Amino acid sequence: MADGEDEGLRDQLKEAAADAKDAVKDIVEEVPLPVRTSDLPKRAASAVVMLAVLAGIVWAGGYVWTGFAALVGLIVYGEWSRIVLRMTQSTVKRVIGLVLGVIYIGGATYFLAVFGNDEAMGVPEGQWHWPLIALVAVVIATDTGAYFAGRAIGGSKIAPSISPSKTWAGLIGGMVCAAAVLALIVQNTFIEMPLPMALLFGAGAAVIAQAGDFLESGMKRKAGLKDSGTLIPGHGGFFDRLDGLLAVSWAAGAWVLVALLYAPEL
User: Fold this and answer.
1) Strand locations in the chain (E)
2) Is the pTM of this model over 0.70?
3) Distance separating alpha carbons of residues 50 and 46, to the nearest angstrom
4) Within 10 A of 229 (CB to CB), how many other CB atoms are there?
């Protein structure tokens, strides 16, 4: 009798498992294929974690931010070096690529550290690190605007042989979002900048961020790599996420240096 009851229970469990499997299959099939097959959930989760960590470090500022910027710079340079070594077998070209990486990534890292230094940027006591926040926010706005405008409008590609997903509509969307975000920050913080200049700088920063993206994409394509690394789930490497920020940091840092050098004449 016990054996019969056991067999009956096993049959019921098998039927329940089969019903559950069919139910899950029906639910999954109702989800659009692009969502099922994309890595959007993983990318979104990673993005939330990265933004939370970044927000905490930006808020801490000072030596914490400087140390973090230096660490990230070293990681990015490691990924840059990996790409360069895959791009060519020529010793001379490798050396040139590695040296250019020191200049490009080292300079961008230095400027990022400076933008997070309250004393160097003249941040009033008790204020947030708005120069650094503005820099990061403009790049995020560029990526966000370009993504949604590109998906919604589509259209012709900018350079399909380098980055097939980048469209002119996406670039314009990124420029609009970046300009709006920088204007909003400037109008509501201690940063002194005329509104037309903020709009112009925001749009220009979007173009520079996209140029940084194309630089990395071109390097990876030549090296035969999909991602610069695997440290960030769903996003690849640090260079993949910071390509635009590096370029914008260089441009913003150069502009600040020129302004400081020629301030009496401006």
Assistant:
1) none
2) yes
3) 6
4) 19
Closest CA relative to residue 56, chosen from 45, 44, 68: 68
> By the 8 A CB rule, do 94 and 88 touch?
yes
Length of the chain: 266
Distance CA 245, CA 132 (A): 11
Contact 213, 163 (CB under 8 A): yes
CB-facing half-sphere around the CA of 180: CA atoms within 13 A: 11
Model pLDDT for residues 209-245, shown as the tens digit of each residue: 999 999 999 999 999 998 887 766 655 788 988 999 9
CA geometry: angle 102, 105, 106, nearest 5 deg = 60
User: pLDDT tens across 1-31, in order?
Assistant: 445 555 554 565 556 555 544 544 554 444 4
* Residue-range domain boundaries for the chain: 1-30, 41-265
